[in-house]
Give the backbone structure.
Amino acid sequence: MSALHRLLVLVAFSCAIVCFSSAQAGTLVASTHPLYLIAKAVTAGIEQPVLLLPPASSGHDINLRPSDRLLLKQSDFVIWFGRDYEAPLYDLLENQRNAIALFDLKAFHRLPLRDVKGRAIPQSLDPHIWLDPYNAIGIAYAIATVRAKQFPRYASQYMQNAKNFSVRLQHVVRAEQSQKPRTYWAYHDAYHYLEKSLNLQFAGALTADPDLPPSMGQLIWLKQHRPHANAVCLFAERQPNSALMRKLQPMDYYPIDEVMAASTDFIQGWQALAQRLEQCVQ
Ligand SMILES: [Zn+2]
C-alpha cells in the first residue's frame, strides 16, 4: 500500500467520526496559515476556508480570542496539526467531533526534533511536516477526502483540485532541487523537512525554543563547531539582535517564514522559501 493510500484509509476512518456530524454546507477552518493555504487550493471554486489564527502566527505562539473558540465550535470541519505544534488548541479540540489532528493520523513522512547541537531527540516529532512537499500533498488529499465525504456533490472537484495541487507542487520541487550541498545554522530547528529537497546540512540551532533567547553556552558551542571558516548561513524567523549577530561572525542572516505569511498560495510560498534558502552561498 503506498504512503498516500495508507493516509487516505486513515482519513476515511477519522471521517467516520467527523463527516456525518453535519449535513449542511458549513465552514472549513484551518488552524495555521500553511494549512489554510493548502485548504484553499483543495477547495478552489467550491468554498472559502477560514483561517483561525492571524497569517503570521505560527503554532509556537497562539493567542485565542473568545470569537476564535466560538468559530471552532460552530464550524463543521476543523483541520489542525496537533499538540506537538499547536499545544494551546489541544484542550479545545482533543474531543471535538468536528476536528482532525493530522499528527493523530500516524501517517506522513516524520522526522525527529534535534537538539541545538543537531542530535536527534528519541521519540520526538519535528512538527513542521508541511515543509516536506510530499507531506503537503498528503494533507491536500486528506482535506479533499473529508470534504468529498461531507459534500458528495463536489467530490470529484475536491479530488481533482488535490491532484492539480500535487502536479503543480511536484513540478516546482523538481525545478528547485539543488545539487550543491550547503551547511546552515537555524534559529530554531524548523527546516529539517526541506533538507532533502534542497540539499541542506544542519550544523546546529541557536535555541531549542523559538521563544527563548540563545544561551551563552550554545553561542560558544556554535563558534567552536563552525562547519567552515566562511560566513555560515543562519536561517531564522526573527532577526537576532546585533550583539548576537556579532558573536557569530562571519555569518549571513536569511529571514525565513515557516508559515508563509506573505504568500497567498502554498506552492508559491514553498518556492519562495526554497529560493531564499538557495541564496545561501558558501
Ligand atoms: Zn517552528
Q: What stands out?
A: Residues 3-174 form a domain with the Rossmann fold fold (CATH 3.40.50.1980). The mean pLDDT is 90. The chain has two domains: 3-174, 178-278.
